[in-house]
Amino acid sequence: MVVLSFQPVQLISTSSLQRRRGASGGRSTCATIRCGIAEPSGEPAPLGQKTKYNDGFFEKAFMTLFARKMEIYAPKAAADSNKKKKGWFDYDYESFVDVSKSVILGRNRLQQQEVVREVLLSMLPPGAPAQFRKLFPPTKWAAEFNAALTVPFFHWLVGPSEVVEVEIDGLKQRSGVHIKKCRYLENSGCVGMCVNMCKIPTQDFFTNDFGLPLTMIPNFEDMSCEMVYGQVPPPFEEDPVSKQPCYADICSIANPNSTICPKLQA
């Protein structure tokens, strides 16, 4: 299987990479950021192996909240089955991913993305997007602040990450987030879910609803990802992910005969 690799070389500065690998001596940032990884190394497992996590009460609470919100859009049979089997705190990450998989069935790319947007809006108080625009106008400070918040607050969803320096319009700023190995992509093993249920709706939500541009650049070769706050995302048709094939060997709904993941087609 040929897998495309999207390395964001134009975004991540050399000095940033040196700081990440050199100044820290190659050690994980888990000592200062609670990443919840159970691997002996403190780093995500190598590609092909599933990373082990130690999820606590708050992590499972978030998983349950998101799963319950997503279940509203799942086929009725699947939603009823989950409700009979699981209480409010019986969900784990695999359950959350399973609900996501049930949501994408029978929906096209745009419909899947709209579901995620509705879920995100349902978790916010009325008027939150407008308030966010006032508090965080599209400035360097706002981009850097949101990058810093992403690392501790979303480790349960994407795994360990770190703030990195990026270059936007010729200016360097610390508004990038390097996700070492995306937990969502690793557990779903699905290119379409990565793009339609995470990348595109998250980009659009921050860029259009919150007014703070965000570009996400997944690397399907090593399952890492770069989030760049302050950079306007390209149209879907011009984004390299639009031509990404399935993970034919690990995705349960893959079409190995297609050169492009079917879930990425309109």
Automatic annotation (TrEMBL):
Pfam families: D27-like_C (PF13225). This is Beta-carotene isomerase D27-like C-terminal domain-containing protein. Signal peptide: none annotated. Coiled coil: none annotated. GO terms for molecular function: iron ion binding. InterPro entries: D27-like, D27-like_C. It comes from the Eukaryota. Residues 156-238 form the Beta-carotene isomerase D27-like C-terminal domain. The lineage of its organism: Eukaryota, Viridiplantae, Streptophyta, Embryophyta, Tracheophyta.
